[in-house]
Every structure is written in C-alpha cells, then in structure tokens.
Write a structure and sequence with these properties.
Jelly Rolls, 2 domains, 6-stranded antiparallel beta sheet, BRINP, BRINP_C, BMP/retinoic acid-inducible neural-specific protein 3
C-alpha cells in the first residue's frame, strides 16, 4: 500500500472476528487459578473409557486408556478451545507398591487418534507432573500438570494412557528401582488396586466463526472487488501463522492450521492442499517475509 508516497507492506486487518486467541487473564492470575484448580477455568469435557470407570477400583496391572473430549462440531461449533492444565485424583489401596505412569496425547481440532501429538512431559523444560498428597484415609494424590500461557495449545480431545510400575528399594536401600508389573511376579508383593476419582481439563474457549473463514477462502477464487483477494490471503496468512504459533514444542512446528481446515471447516484434503499452496505462493511475493516448514499432523 502507498503511505506518504512510499510503498509499504500491507498489514492484515484484525482476524479476531474469525477466531479468538487470547484470554483476559494475566499470567499471575492464571497461575493462581490453576494452583487452586479453580472451576472457573475448567473446560467441561465428556469422559470416555472402555477400560475403567471413575470412582471405581480396578486392577492396574494392564494399561488403561481414557479420554476427555468436547465434541465441538456437534455441541460447540462456534468455539475453539485452549488447554492450560490437567488434573487427576488417583488413589491406591493401603501399602500398595504400585506407581502410576501417565502418557498424554492431545488432539487439537478433532479427527482420529493418529492426529494427536504426544505431550513431552518433563522433557526439554516442558512442565512435569506435580503430586500432592491428599488428606484422605487412602493413598490419594492429586496429579496436576500446569501448562499456563507459555505452553498452552489448542485441544479438542485429550487421550490419557495409565500404566503402572512397581516401586522397590535398590540393593543399597538408598535408591528406588522400578519394575513393570509383568516383569516382577512375586506373590508376596501387594500390587493392590487403583481408582481415579476425577479428571479435569483447565483452559478456556474462544470465539470461532467457520462460515466467515469459508467466505475468506471463497474469495481466493471469486474475489468481491479488485484487491479483495489479496486482503483475504493476508488474513488467512495471519490466521495460519497465529494458529501454528501455538504448536507444541519441537524442532519444527506442527501444521495445526491444516487440522483446523480439515476438521472444523470440514474441507477435503485436496482443498486444504490447494489453500496451503495459494498461501505459500502469496507469501513468497511479500517483501521481507520468511516462511517456515511445518510437520504434518492431520491427514
């Protein structure tokens, strides 16, 4: 665009009415609410598991799978969701030698389990689980994982895998050794039972207008006026970059934007490829811009 006789790169108009990204909560306020597991920042998700039920004892010798999902396309089509933390209350029978081990996968916008990414807990400065002993007759602990603003990301479904290992004293008595239950069969060992009282996802929901984004995409082929195609491309680039910026940690960003197009806008694979190609070609023409490589997540 021309400004005082000089050609300056045009800046995309605000994309807030297409998709929201931010919350009014400040870092300290958010940290306080997460520490208190305040229900005001709880995102109410549907618990599903074929392996166990909440508040029921189960044999933890075998891996248990559970998930928390929002079913946004069915119930909340005008919202996308951000995860800030996760909390589980796990109980063991008295004198149990078991130690829970949790693995978490996050699906950003829907689709199959294969379109989820593994949460690298305690790796490369990523947060670790914090355990707090609860004042209950049983061996109950609250397991909390706090992502906060630094590690927050989109989520539609959280997959949790629970397996157990046996904690034993080492030969010197000063260290702990862990065994998988099937590797360490000793009738005298009290493996015990386990139950999960509750699971909570903390975060917030944001405005999302799929029809408005479809209208932007339509202008790539059928622009309203001269210049509206470029304006639509600029706004789609802005949305793409802001979505992908919330990718989980890794050497390369995940292509979350394609997941958004595929599962929340219900576009075909060929349509997603065409849109991404158009954005890359347009971005290459812009002055002083550097594109980035992404890793494919969604089919």
């Amino acid at each position: 665009m021309l400004s005082q006789g000089l050609c300056k790169p045009e800046v995309a108009e605000s994309t807030d009415h297409y998709i929201g990204f931010e919350t009014d909560l400040q870092d300290l306020e958010m940290k306080y609410l997460l520490q208190k597991t305040d229900r005001r920042i709880e995102v109410h998700a549907i618990f599903i598991s074929n392996d166990m039920r909440l508040n029921s004892w189960f044999d933890p010798s075998w891996r248990k799978r559970m998930l928390l999902t929002l079913k946004s396309n069915k119930y909340k089509s005008s919202l996308v969701h951000m995860i800030l933390g996760l909390s589980l209350q796990i109980c063991l029978t008295k004198n149990s030698t078991l130690e829970p081990v949790l693995a978490v996968y996050v699906n950003p916008f829907g689709g199959s389990h294969s379109e989820s990414w593994f949460m690298p807990v305690s790796e490369n400065s990523f947060p670790d689980w914090e355990r707090t002993k609860l004042d209950l007759p049983l061996q109950c602990y609250n397991w909390s994982l706090t992502l906060g603003n630094k590690w927050k990301t989109f989520f539609e479904t959280v997959h949790i895998y629970l397996r157990s290992r046996i904690k034993s004293s080492g030969p010197n008595g000063n260290e702990s050794i862990y065994y998988e239950p099937l590797e360490f069969i000793d009738p005298s060992r009290n493996l015990g039972y386990m139950k999960i009282n509750n699971i909570q996802v903390f975060g917030y929901s944001m405005h999302f207008d799929p029809e408005a984004i479809r209208d932007l995409i339509l202008q790539l082929d059928y622009p309203y006026t001269q210049g509206s195609q470029d304006s639509a491309l600029l706004q789609l680039l802005e949305i793409r970059d802001r979505v992908n910026k919330l990718s989980p940690p890794g050497q390369r960003r995940l292509d979350l934007f394609s997941c958004l197009l595929r599962h929340r806008l219900k576009l075909s694979t060929s349509e997603v490829v065409r849109i991404q190609s158009a954005l890359q070609a347009f971005n290459a023409k812009l002055p002083n811009t550097v594109d980035y490589d992404t890793t494919k997540l969604c089919s």
